[in-house]
Amino acid sequence: MEHAIKQETAFVGIEPNKLLLKAVLLSGGEVLCKVLENDVAGYRWLRSWLQRNDVTIMGLRVCMRLDMPYSEAAANALAGMGMLVCDAQPAPLQDYLRNQGLPENAARSAVVLAHYCAAARPAPWTPPSPAYVELRLWLRRLQAVRQLRKQEMARLESHFHAGQIALHQLLRKQIACLDAQIRQHESAIFEHVRRHPDLPRPPELAGNYQRIARYGVGASLPGSH
Fold first, then answer.
1. pLDDT for the residue numbered 165
2. How far is residue 47's CA from residue 64's CA, in Å, rounded to a whole number?
3. Which residue of 87, 135, 153, 199 has the fewest C-beta atoms within 10 A of its own C-beta?
4. Residues 224, 210: contact at Cβ < 8 Å?
């Protein structure tokens, strides 16, 4: 006996920015809009709002531009709630816009993404593995410490030229501590990648292969050649 194919009757498009999410729901011939905070509380409010509009959360197709900033946390949270988060890839989305006579800058619009989701039924996105998420967090932390060191080096120069010897010496010690933190982070990142050799290469790792790989004796990171 063949299983009945699920009839999808609701679709959501989401447009995130740093602070807010704009969500558009297509359901029962209606177009509904909701603006929420782009944080854990906002994701829960979105789920409650959908449920109040008689939308089944499990398997609900939600379309986003995952190549845009501030989309990652929302995508992971909504997928964790059981929604089918779909990545609106640039090329097919642009084809859809042309076919609909819409301008290219409409590609970020939540209402356009909802209609695109209903028309194209893009494939569900697969959330990254915990190991990949951890690697990106390590790399972002490393970048933050490096940026702090850069700022402290600029202050070190100004203290020297101003003849502020005590401040200059203190800052040199602090920079040495930052250097030790950077080495620890690079060593931890190398060990993490070595434990998970099949991880996809995150963008934050670009340009860091040789520097990080020096912490492995006779070893190299995938893609470092």
1. 87
2. 16
3. 153
4. yes
